[in-house]
Amino acid sequence: MNGLAMRDALHRAYVNARVMSAIPLKGVCDDYNWADAIRELRQGRVVIFSAGTGNPFFTTDSAACLRGIEIEADVVLKATKVDGVFTANPVANPDAVLCDKLSYISVLEKELKVMDLAAFTLPRDHKMH
């Protein structure tokens, strides 16, 4: 649903966007296909990857990073309901502090729970910024 909402918001801003899913959702969005995604990107369209990888053990965060690696993206963005990365969940912990600068190493050392371990190690190991 988030992917569809993002696509609709982009369309309202006159940005051509397409949603692709690893899980077949006929009539809702297109099936994920690497070649189709690359073609869409080369034509200047935004591609939104939705519904994870279709495999167990992968969160949607690690799936986003995997797709980013597959299409050779420079960056993967994560949007949430808080204003950034905190030392703890700011909704549950009023003492949580907003982190002003992070690296893959600092996130792993501090064990920040913003994304799962694979979601940080995949892009780190593939030199994604």
From TrEMBL:
The keyword ATP-binding applies. GO terms for biological process: UDP biosynthetic process. Gene3D superfamilies: Acetylglutamate kinase-like. One of its GO terms (cellular component) is cytosol. InterPro entries: AceGlu_kinase-like_sf (IPR036393), Asp/Glu/Uridylate_kinase (IPR001048). Keywords: ATP-binding, Kinase, Nucleotide-binding, Pyrimidine biosynthesis, Transferase. Belongs to the UMP kinase family. This is UMP kinase. It comes from Vibrio maritimus. The lineage of its organism: Bacteria, Pseudomonadati, Pseudomonadota, Gammaproteobacteria, Vibrionales. The gene is pyrH.
